[in-house]
Design goal:
Length: about 200
């Protein structure tokens, strides 16, 4: 996965609490294991009407928020079923960071495994970002190294993140990438085992 260091991007406000993973990516879009192409299903029932026409009042359909890379949302974002397609769809749409007061645990973990940064801020800080995102300036900076979010008006908010998760995101390492860092040790172990227990190689 791509490393995440600092992101300067448009922020889109979605002031809704308890947005579940079925709202993020409805079940009809889960038939693929490919990450590309899921953007079309992101927030489908919120973005489109029954005839498939874009709802002009939905934030991600509005011209001023086109190309947003940061989403600021209500409490308990990503609740519901544990579908990894949810962070995939957000990232395929171009969103690389989500800011909220809290996230569902499984969604939160899936974000780190896929390079999407979930940022937890205080309620008043999230509200401040919501209000500023509705103004004329929509650009925020999310810096993982310094663990800060700088609002459109220049206010700085600090967030906490697990040091190990932070280190892996800064290096662009998912679980497979982390394991491959020990590839030489793994190869050495397998070579020694093959010499000591050759019958296992024929199993």
């Amino acid at each position: 996965m791509d490393a995440f260091t600092r992101l300067d991007a448009k922020v889109a406000p979605l002031p809704l609490a308890n947005i579940d993973t079925d709202q993020i990516i409805p079940k009809q879009f889960l038939k693929t294991v490919e990450r590309a192409g899921l953007a079309k299903g992101l927030f489908y029932d919120l973005r489109f009407d029954a005839e498939g026409r874009a709802k002009p009042d939905f934030v991600l359909n509005r011209p001023e928020y086109r190309g947003a890379g940061v989403l600021v949302a209500g409490d308990n974002f990503g609740c519901g079923s544990s579908r990894e397609h949810a962070p995939w769809a957000l990232m395929d749409f171009g969103i690389k960071a989500v800011i909220s007061t809290s996230f569902a645990d499984i969604f939160y973990n899936n974000c780190f495994q896929n390079g999407l940064l979930p940022v937890v801020l205080k309620a008043d800080e999230v509200q401040q970002l919501m209000e500023e995102a509705k103004g004329g300036n929509h650009v925020v900076s999310v810096d993982l190294e310094t663990q800060t979010v700088v609002s459109p008006s220049g206010r700085t908010f600090h967030f906490e993140v697990d040091p190990q998760r932070k280190a892996k995101m800064l290096q662009g390492l998912d679980s497979i990438g982390e394991t491959l860092q020990a590839a030489k040790d793994i190869d050495l172990y397998e070579m020694k085992r093959a010499l000591a227990q050759p019958w296992l190689e024929d199993a």
